[in-house]
């Protein structure tokens, strides 16, 4: 299925479709169809959740390799590596610094409570007794929106647009003028402003400290710092 998706289908759309298709393996759906007692629902939902967690890295890695690599196999899990290390290998990277960044990125994005779009959506869909595969697929559809997870991609598009128009040799006034022109055109600056947080996102602070330590001279990071 994953190998047959068109190259122009967004990776999140592929991710949602693949997760929904895994519903065929749902222990919860099968148990519900058998008529198990309501008091036992949680056991099968738990099994589905654990199975899904185990499958997600491989699904994500296959999508990534198909779109941005050569479509080669993701390989086998190395029990000597941690979760992040294995995921980096599955994506096709072996740079220790990249793995350390991935480790940081996964940790700071792992704690999501019920207030955001994706977490709320999974709870809402699950409340209809849809199995965890369908509930999580719905959550990922929410995550794919530009006011949620897709904001990361929108930030990169925004930064690249600045670079294309004024380059890296900008002055503070040039940058201010560009941003004001952008805002007055009715567009927003992605990554700035949060529905819940009223201070700088601590996830950004963590990544900023990493960049200051390891990538202080990177042109794109310096652009982000200038905007910040």
UniProtKB/TrEMBL annotation:
Chief location bin: mitochondrion
PROSITE patterns attached to this UniProt entry: CITRATE_SYNTHASE (PS00480)
GO cellular component: mitochondrial matrix
GO biological process terms on file: carbohydrate metabolic process; tricarboxylic acid cycle
Alphabetized Gene3D superfamilies for the sequence: Citrate Synthase, domain 1
Localization annotation: Mitochondrion matrix
Key words of the record: Transferase
Presence of keyword Repressor: no
UniProt KW Lyase keyword: no
Residues forming coiled coils: none
One Pfam family, short name: Citrate_synt
Alphabetized GO MF terms: acyltransferase activity, acyl groups converted into alkyl on transfer
PANTHER family given in the database record: CITRATE SYNTHASE, CITRATE SYNTHASE, MITOCHONDRIAL
Family: Belongs to the citrate synthase family.
Subunit structure: Homodimer.
Protein name per its UniProtKB record: Citrate synthase
Organism this protein belongs to: Strongylus vulgaris (Blood worm)
Lineage: Eukaryota, Metazoa, Ecdysozoa, Nematoda, Chromadorea
